[in-house]
Design goal:
With 215 residues, the protein is of the alpha/beta class. Helices cover 38% and strands 21% of the residues. It contains seven helices and five strands, in the order αβββαβααβααα. Helix 2 (86-100) packs across helix 3 (119-125) and helix 3 (119-125) runs antiparallel to helix 4 (128-135).
């Protein structure tokens, strides 16, 4: 599929560019966390026996997670929201421009093709002059359909899920505090992703995805 290959190579080439503080590369993704509260207090860990949870629990809906990840600097930020609408997305992009990278000329954003991940979302949320101002500092690069593995923010979201969210969390405020502690530690370590897959690798290992030019 030519379109898949085009978007894939565009993202892969971006990942191997040198760091430019005026044109930072930020990966953006979304996830969810189901809020589940314990009905009974878990039994504490004992020698030879892990902590034990009762099978009963109460559901308290879900929280949305917006993930920002700048791999070359080992920085990430997770925004916890109630929803994942166009308006929520637009406010994330505004924060990216005004709060996280106010001195950057252009922020290159790698993201997937969700219907909310569009410039139009900014115009839904803000007056035209404000939407245009924010967009003038953003450059969107989309991963191909069925190619979310190309987004390094998805890898970071998996790390978050495995290290912090693989347990029952009953309410949003506790979720926010736990994620903040995890985020602070990861940022202090400048933990990043050792991305080695290149366009040249793709042309060899994923040759079957490239359109055939045989007559």
């Amino acid at each position: 599929n030519a379109e898949f290959v085009c978007h894939m190579e565009e993202v892969l080439d971006l990942y191997h560019e040198s760091y430019d503080p005026q044109r930072p590369l930020v990966c953006f993704d979304e996830g969810t966390k189901q809020l589940i509260e314990e009905v009974k207090t878990p039994l504490p860990m004992q020698p030879g026996m892990p902590q034990r949870y009762d099978y009963e629990y109460e559901r308290h809906g879900t929280a949305n997670l917006f993930v920002f990840f700048e791999p070359l600097q080992g920085w990430r930020h997770i925004e916890v929201t109630d929803r994942r609408t166009m308006i929520d997305y637009a406010h994330c992009m505004k924060a990216l421009v005004d709060d996280f990278y106010p001195d950057a000329d252009v922020i290159r954003v790698v993201q997937d093709n969700l219907n909310t991940h569009k410039p139009a979302s900014l115009y839904e949320a803000f007056p035209p002059t404000e939407a245009k101002r924010i967009l003038s500092h953003l450059e969107f690069h989309y991963t191909p359909k069925h190619g979310s593995w190309l987004n390094m923010a998805e890898i970071e979201l998996n790390v978050l899920s495995n290290q912090c969210l693989d347990r029952r969390i009953g309410n949003k405020s506790f979720l926010v505090s736990e994620i903040a502690a995890w985020q602070k530690l990861r940022n202090r370590k400048a933990a990043s992703t050792n991305w080695r897959f290149t366009t040249q690798d793709a042309r060899i290992k994923l040759k079957h995805l490239y359109p055939s030019l045989d007559a």
